[in-house]
Design goal:
About 30% of the residues lie in helices and about 10% in strands. The chain has about 160 residues and is an alpha+beta fold. The protein has one domain. The longest helix has 11 residues. The N and C termini lie far apart (about 40 Å).
């Protein structure tokens, strides 16, 4: 199995997320559904050892920049990075069942209603998910990064 770095996800607690300005919050996604649906798992770690970590993760927010779309079979990271969304419990945000089954088989996990979903059903969810997160779900729009030429600063101040 090849382990290509597909991007970087920044993860923050709900307290840190709430302190962000609204225009920044809309670039982030919630993790509660991913965790409770069994889509997020630490492969090779027994579920009983993951439980407390996953309970914390369910209350976090992430901002994931995809730099290498390995699912397109790109041999190198090409093009601009893409801001990725998180799977959600709406039709446009569901992960295709055959992809989940293939992942489960490849990684020897069971995320079905008898597996991780069942084990995580009692897991506490956040009291609320900030409506500025998961912007695409509420507004039907995402964000794209365009790479454009710009003038170089000759003497930029060092931070």
């Amino acid at each position: 199995m090849s382990l290509d770095v597909a991007g970087v996800e920044y993860i923050v607690s709900d307290n840190i997320f709430e302190a962000l300005p609204p225009e920044e919050q809309r670039l982030w996604h919630s993790h509660a559904y991913e965790v409770k649906a069994g889509l997020w798992t630490d492969v090779g770690v027994p579920e009983m050892l993951q439980t407390s970590e996953m309970a914390r993760m369910a209350k976090t927010y992430g901002k994931f920049w995809c730099t290498w779309q390995v699912d397109r079979s790109d041999r190198l990271p090409v093009g601009a990075p893409a801001l990725m969304m998180s799977p959600q419990a709406v039709e446009s945000g569901r992960v295709r069942a055959e992809l989940v089954r293939a992942r489960d088989e490849r990684c020897k996990v069971d995320s079905s209603a008898r597996g991780l979903k069942a084990e995580r059903v009692e897991m506490d969810e956040p009291e609320w998910i900030n409506p500025n997160a998961d912007y695409w779900r509420l507004h039907g729009k995402g964000f794209a990064v365009d790479v454009t030429a710009t003038e170089m600063k000759q003497h930029a101040p060092f931070p």
